[in-house]
């Protein structure tokens, strides 16, 4: 269950940050054949649909979500809160806050009761932790790291979704608990 959760969370992160050269439709299809928690599958479908702009709208934010956000991200700037619609109901969807912290764009997700679910940060190779960089480069040493999504969970665990590219292809790999796993493999558009 945790593995599926991490796969879907990492996939959602790539969709949310519009990773370079990655087609969101491919991510949605990749998730479709995996057994995954419904809330994340729904999030991927909503955010990759042609009607995503109608499904996310500015909203009056749950006070608990605001309190938790302000406690956890004291130095955040450019807050932009949105309501997520799930199953046609705002009450089921929760909230997401897009913000900047230390020159990194992040999104914090909260359930409809204001409880923090996870945060996704997107950044370039230069900000990637040395240990994670080494794990990726030990296998993909001829590839350039083009973008990183870091997913933080309430239990303190982190998952890194790293996009690597060479002249013929690009891949999405996941690093979790010191383990590297290929998630997606694409041929480069020439």
Structure description:
This protein has about 190 residues and is α+β, with helices and mostly antiparallel strands. Helix 2 (about 25-30) packs antiparallel against helix 3. A hairpin with a 3-residue loop joins strand 7 (about 160-165) and strand 8 (about 170-175). Helices cover about 35% and strands about 35% of the residues. The chain has one domain (about 1-185): Nuclear Transport Factor 2, Chain: A (Roll), CATH 3.10.450.360. The protein is elongated, with a radius of gyration of 16 Å. It has a nine-stranded antiparallel β-sheet, sandwiched between helices. The chain has helices at about 1-15, 25-30, 40-50, 50-55, 65-70, 90-95, 130-140; strands at about 55, 75-85, 95-100, 105-110, 115-125, 145-150, 160-165, 170-175, 180-185. The longest helix has 15 residues, at about 1-15. Mean pLDDT is about 75; it is low at about 5-10 and about 15-55.
List keywords for this structure.
disordered N terminus, alpha+beta, 190 residues, elongated, 33% helix, Nuclear Transport Factor 2, Chain: A
Total of helices: 7
Number of DSSP strands? 9
Q: Classify the beta-strand content into a percent band.
A: 25-35%
Give the low-confidence spans: 3-8, 13-55
Give me the strand/helix succession.
Answer: HHHHEHEHEEEHEEEE
Give average pLDDT, whole number: 75
CATH topology: Nuclear Transport Factor 2, Chain: A
**Name of the top-level CATH class:** Alpha Beta
Give the overall shape. elongated
Radius of gyration: 16 Å
Percent of residues in helices comes to 25-40%
In CATH, the architecture is Roll
| Number of separate structural domains | 1
The largest beta-sheet arranges its strands as: 1-2-3-4-5-6-7-8-9
The biggest sheet amounts to:
9 strands, antiparallel
The end-to-end distance, rounded to whole angstroms, is 38 Å
């Amino acid at each position: 269950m945790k593995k599926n959760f991490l796969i879907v969370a990492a996939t959602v992160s790539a969709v949310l940050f519009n990773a370079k050269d990655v087609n969101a439709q491919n991510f949605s299809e990749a998730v479709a054949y995996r057994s995954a928690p419904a809330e994340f599958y729904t999030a991927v479908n909503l955010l990759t649909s042609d009607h995503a702009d109608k499904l996310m709208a500015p909203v009056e934010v749950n006070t608990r979500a605001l309190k938790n956000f302000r406690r956890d991200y004291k130095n955040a700037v450019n807050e932009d809160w949105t309501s997520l619609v799930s199953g046609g109901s705002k009450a089921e969807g929760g909230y997401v806050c897009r913000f900047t912290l230390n020159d990194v764009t992040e999104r914090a997700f909260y359930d409809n009761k204001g409880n923090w679910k996870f945060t996704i940060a997107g950044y370039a190779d230069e900000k990637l932790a040395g240990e994670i960089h080494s794990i990726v480069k030990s296998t993909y040493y001829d590839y350039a790291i083009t973008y990183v999504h870091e997913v933080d969970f309430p239990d303190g665990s982190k998952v890194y979704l790293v996009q690597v590219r060479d002249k013929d292809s690009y891949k999405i790999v996941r690093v979790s608990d010191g383990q590297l796993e290929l998630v997606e493999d694409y041929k480069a558009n020439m």
